[in-house]
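Tokens for Chitin-binding type-2 domain-containing protein. Go.
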Amino acid sequence: MIKIIVLLSALACVYCEVTCPPVDPTLPIYLPDESYCGTFYECADGRAWKFECAPGTYFDTEKNVCNYDVDCGNRRMSTFVPTSPQPPTTPE
């Protein structure tokens, strides 16, 4: 069941700027997203697979896991883009 969830949450990163080695090393390679702290990539078969951390956690570049209390530096904490509030509509 967990494998299915992981497979569904992984997205192949075809046009991303992450470069992975063509051959997998013994240990997995995890790379942070350059813009968003809650996003990271796992290299497999020369491709970067994009993952999102669970809500409230961020990719810890020192431990290579999603964690609490992470120093995100200049990376954004969220991929959520707020919209301007819209005035309520009144029925005609």
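Residues 1-11 have pLDDT under 50 and may be disordered.
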